[in-house]
Each structure stands twice: as C-alpha cells, then as structure tokens.
Amino acid sequence: MTKQRILQVGSLSGSPSANQRLADGYDVFELWKHGDRKAALAEYGAGITAMVTSASMGADAALIAALPDLKAICSWGVGYETIDVQAARQRGVMVSNTPDVLTDCVADLAWGLMIAGARRMSLGDRYVRAGRWGQVHGSIPLGTRVSGKKLGIVGLGRIGQAIARRGDGFDMEVRYHNRRARTDVPYTYEASLVELARWADFLVVATVGGPETRHLVNREVLEALGPKGIIVNIARGPVIDEQALATALESGKLGCAALDVFEHEPNVPDALKTSDNTVLLPHIGSATYETRLAMEDLMLENLQSYFQTGKLVTPVD
Predict the structure, then answer these.
(1) What CATH superfamily is the domain 5-97+290-316?
(2) What is the per-residue DSSP string for 155-182?
(3) Contacts 24+ apart (CB under 8 A), 221-225
C-alpha cells in the first residue's frame, strides 16, 4: 500500500518515538535535512497535503505558500503562536495542536518552580554542591512560606485552572487576570494586571504567547509584585519583558523569578544566570515520558484523522 506523503518541518527529538512512527506510517519529506529550503520546496512541495511541525519550528506564511496543495498542519505541542494561522485560514488550511494532554505536567512544574523559588532550593543546591553546607545557617537568606499565601494567575485557560486547583491544597486565595472574566470558575477576576500583581505574593504566567501578549508583564507589573514577590513563567518567554525583569531583580524591586521559558531561547541573560534570586529551567514543562508520548499520540491521531476523514481531532479555534 502506498504511503501518504507528508512534510515534516524538523526532527521531533523531544518525543520518545515520533520520528520513527512518522517514518513507519508515511512517506516523509524531511525539510530540515535540506540546506536550501526554498529550492527543496519548489522541487518537492507539490502534492504534499499535510505538514507536521511544532511550536519551536512553526510554519510561517512563506512555508504555507510554498505548499500549493497543503490542507492540514498538525503541530506537536499546545502553543501555535509560531504558526501563521491567519495565512493558513486564508488558504483553507486546517491547523491542529495537542491540548489537554500536557496540562497536568506543566501545572506540576509551575508549582515546582513556585516552591523552589520561595524556599530558595536552587541556592541551597549550589551551597551543598560547593561544600558550603556548614556555612548555610546564618548566611543563606531565609525563604518564604507558600501555604496560605495569595496566588495570582495570568491566563486562566486549561493550564491556569490546573494551577489554581492545586492552590486549594495549599490553602491559598486565588485571583486571576484574563482578557475577560469567566463565569465558570470560583476564583476572583482582576481586570487590572497591575492590581493583581500588587495583591499577589506569587504571580504565575500561564497565558498564550504571540504578539498580543508580548511584554504583557512589564516593569510596572513586576514592581507592583514587589520586593518579596515571586513571578513564575511556564507560558512563553516574550510574555515577560526580560530586560525589565533583570533590572527589577538587580534593584531589589522584585523578590524572585522562577522561569521555564525565556524571551530568546536558548539564550538566557547573564543577569538572570548569576542572580541568587532566580530558578532557571530549560523549557521542560511537558518533558515527562508520559506527557511527551501523549502529545505524540495526539499529533499522529490528528494526522491520521485528516487522511481518513478530512477533519482534525483537535483543531485550533
């Protein structure tokens, strides 16, 4: 039986077996192996109706335009800000992502970052590794308690709600900021992000990425959070103004930043790397075997559904 031909933008090396499963099931045109992408697309692009990509690789308008027969873009991951959805819609191209399956692991990591920042776990780890345990008491700064504090969440979507629910177990009061108030949640809505930050002890960024939310968390928001406040970002790096963040930490106007994402990944400012008031992770929110396999399964399910029914299982709205 002849395999359906698809284009794969880049290697899905962060997934347990996605590359192999795609190769087993489809005739895969591996775009990342071609130095001259434009020439490769001009020669081989015709006839390809489905594309596989991810948030890190994306699909811009030029790539979409280079595939005249494209009908479906199946993305591995929940974020799609690097996919030109508008260009796809204008061409009648469907786009899918992999929502829900990574919600719990990303929410878990947000809480790990929150606790690590509050209890100075990264600093304590460095003390132990440097053989400074005997110097800890009286020299390492005291942390702050998490239980019973005020939790602000920026973006109360699937992941934001999962983070909020975990706050109940820590006896925290939860408020949130969204583009609009929700009527289906028990948490207090705060129309002003600055006021939410001023109220909160912890501010967790869980909103979508893209131009609309770039630098949503700016100097004013960070300074409103205050010298004892802790900001956590498991969303997208550009949501926070990274220069303003570094300045707020250096000046003592912000207490701590616990980050899994950065504005110019994989580059991280030295000011963040050298600070004792940061916890830094290499974008591993979904990096568990269970979640990455579930993302892989759902991406492949979308691809299979397109070829069998002409529809996607989890289309981007």
Answers:
(1) NAD(P)-binding Rossmann-like Domain (3.40.50.720)
(2) --SHHHHHHHHHHHTTT-EEEEE-SS--
(3) 221/193, 221/194, 221/197, 222/197, 222/248, 222/253, 222/254, 223/248, 223/253, 223/254, 224/194, 224/195, 224/197, 224/198, 225/197, 225/198, 225/200, 225/254, 225/255
Q: Please state the domain extents for the chain.
A: 5-97+290-316, 102-280
Instruction: Tell me whether domains 5-97+290-316 and 102-280 share a fold.
Output: yes
Enter the pTM of the model: 0.93
What are the pLDDT digits (tens) for 271-295?
Answer: 999 999 999 999 999 999 999 999 9
* Residues across the chain: 317
Q: Which of 43, 212, 265, 290 is catalytic?
A: 265
Would you say residue 92 has pLDDT above 80?
yes
Instruction: Specify whether 283 is catalytic.
Output: yes
The CATH number given to 102-280 is: 3.40.50.720
Marked catalytic residue, from 177, 236, 242, 263: 236
